[in-house]
Amino acid sequence: MSAHLAEHQALLDELPAAAQALAAAAWPEAVRALSARGVDNWLKGALALQRMGRGDGIVAAWIGEVPAVARELGEDILPDFAQHCLQFASRTSGAVIERIVASAPTAARRLGDAELFRDYLRLLDVLLGQAPRGLRPLLEHLDELLAVLTLGGLRRWALWGAQAHRTDFAEQLRYFSLASEEAKAVLQQERKGTLFVDIHRRIGMYLRALWGRDFFLRPSAGDFASPEGSRPFIADFFVHLPDACDDWQGLPGLELYRAAAAHCAAHIVATSARLDGEASSQPAQLSTLQRACVGLIEDARVEALAIRRFPRLKELWLQFHRPDAQPEAPTNAPADSVGARFGRIARALLDADAADDAGAADGAGNHDALVAWTRERFAAADLSTHVVSRELGLALAGEITRLGLPWSAQRDGLAVPYRDDNRYLWEYDRARADDAFAAVQREAQVRRYVSVSEMVNEVEVETAGDDAQEIWVCASEFFADDGVSFNAREGREPVAEPCHYDEFDYQLQLTRPLWTTVQEKRPKLGELAVVEQIIEAHRPLTQRLKHLLEALQPQGVQRIRKLEDGDELDLEAAIRAQVDRRLAQTPDPRVMMRSLRKTRDIAVLVLLDLSESTKDRVAGQDYSVLELTRAATVLLGEAIDTVGDAFALHGFCSDGRHNVFYQRYKDFAQPWSDLAKARLAGMEGRLSTRMGAAIRHAGAQLARVRATRKLLLVVTDGEPADIDVRDPHYLRFDAKKAIEEVSARGVKPFCLTLDPRADQYVARVFGQRNYLVLDHVERLPERLPLLYAGLAR
């Protein structure tokens, strides 16, 4: 072991002798928990904290405690943890930072998930701003607090004390030390019944005993923002269960965990394809009612298949199908609502012997017929394939519509607490479970520089794509007979490294540091003929725009006259001044002039919103918003290229804060060529619209361009939104903050929106004079170049 430690001697030499001794003592534990890269991050973190100059205690705590954190959460958490500790240094003392590091293993063990641990660090950052004196006693009682609270409960408990005793520091210390009665009362109010961290190993062994395989379980901070919690869900073949479950109508939380995990496992085993027809040649867009009905039948199908193998699962699930249970909604729904009938249908399909107990709900008896109608068809169906769920679910939706029953996605939720939210049935990624597991374990792509002999003798993999494990580059140039090197002919420039940007939280009025990740992706190539058809169809418009742009700003030399201080004498003004003097009048002293060379010096970056909504058809037309956006961008590119202005065409979409995808169809240094046009022909709409991160990334690109005027033109069809944000105002305020940031860097932002409801928010985001709402979407190819002409004056 010590021989391996010597490999890092260069880092150890910069640490004091006491820290080196601690590292040597902790080395056996570190190498058991960390890979070579993890060990490097561990030692670099210790060195960074040593250079921070806040005492040796922080370094000692880091060396001794961080391997335990990595063992619980994975070594990828170490750089983020070190970065937070460095940020804490500007706001608190070294003793508090040392306590944060020393208590980190407790937090990691009780939270059990890396993302929850990051949320915990962000909570500490908030408390440093609101109750800095209470942080130390909170950390001293952290084990006691997390033994009964989830992260959301801890957040609400701590923020309550911070706000209640903002100015009374003595009482604040008593609150966070659990010495006051109100601290204990709020703690009791936030206490949860069963915590995920206490039972997840038991649930994992339970599923393995049932199915003979492992399932990946993760806690979700369902109550981090609200005390109601969240439903279970499946994402990337991980089963996400709430980090805490209260007892449900007399049933212990452990039973609820067991039922939810068994149900999700049944989905992973039996649901093998999407249920919205995406795999077919003509996928159908299902309504919310249709999706709810299809999900209801699919839930019953996978449970029926599981019960065939394990009959006692019926008893486990049936105890949560209470006739008197109310749907999950802001208000209690009536017994004859669609949500209540969904509950009765779910119970009837789970228990074929159960009597329909809803006779008093509707005197007409429609719901009785609906339950019997569904049960009869489900009993006769072939449950071995998911096709029956789609067919019977759509038929059920049609029957509900025929009966005229009112449906609301918000009101008519299912009252069965263990069932997941069924996002698994509609998710885009159709990879198999083993592929998903491989993706989790996949190492980062390596770029190797090899010799000519290695390159020639290695087997060529022609089908390797951007996800290849290794990229080989010939270290020394090797030229073909035509004088062109193989690197220039066959190689491709690597896509940029992921970029991390801050995000503004309007509720906390703080910026979340490095909260979002922008990942640049190489755009796909489409058919060049598509772009050529667009240019040919709009050639008269292109010529008219060319003349309009050329006339915007005069070229060549302009003489500025009537100056008191200039470069040369204006003879006409001098003669007039001399005449005035002869006439005994006061002459005009402005007899100088200056010659200025007027040239166009503008750089524009067009940022396209390429979210899933751009696939929607324009009302009354047979083309989509995406096709209109492509046509408008092509015409704009033709017009700007003719004038000679520097311009770039970029697009973005998002899938959560860690996956803001950014594509460059044409960059400033690239010509307006067939390659750029083919990229525009291949662009597609997908996912969501996290606008703030994309604007910050685009502003960073514009900041590197040397130009007198810089213009950022955002083209979007809706407001900012993403899958991991529920508050509609959150991303609006973040986009507004991003606009303020790029404006401070000398970039003029402007938004062209196709959303007819954009007046409600776009002025707050971009400013009163920095947006245009296009009422007639079909005119986008004409209006976008004209808008640029107006902005480029």
Beta-strand proportion: 5-15%
Q: What is the first-to-last residue Cα distance? A: 69 Å
Structure summary, number of beta strands: 18
Shape field:
globular
Q: Give the helix proportion (percent range).
A: 40-55%
Give unreliable regions as ranges: 225-229, 279-283, 326-332, 357-367, 428-444
> What would you call the structural class?
alpha/beta
Number of helices: 33
Relevant terms:
48% helix; 13% strand; alpha/beta; 793 residues; 8-stranded mixed β-sheet
Describe the structure.
By secondary structure, this protein is α/β, with parallel strands linked by helices. It is built from 33 helices and 18 strands. Strands 8-9-15-14-13-16-17-18 form an eight-stranded mixed beta sheet, with helices on both faces. It has a three-stranded mixed beta sheet with strand order 2-4-3, with helices on one face. Strands 10-12-11 form a three-stranded antiparallel beta sheet. Helix 5 runs parallel beside helix 7 and helix 30 (691-703) runs parallel beside helix 31 (728-744). The relative contact order is 0.05.
Kindly summarize this structure in a few lines.
The protein is built from 33 helices and 18 strands. The protein is of the alpha/beta class. The strands form 5 sheets. An 8-stranded mixed beta sheet has the order 8-9-15-14-13-16-17-18, sandwiched between helices. It has a 3-stranded mixed beta sheet with strand order 2-4-3, covered by helices on one side. Strands 10-12-11 form a 3-stranded antiparallel beta sheet.
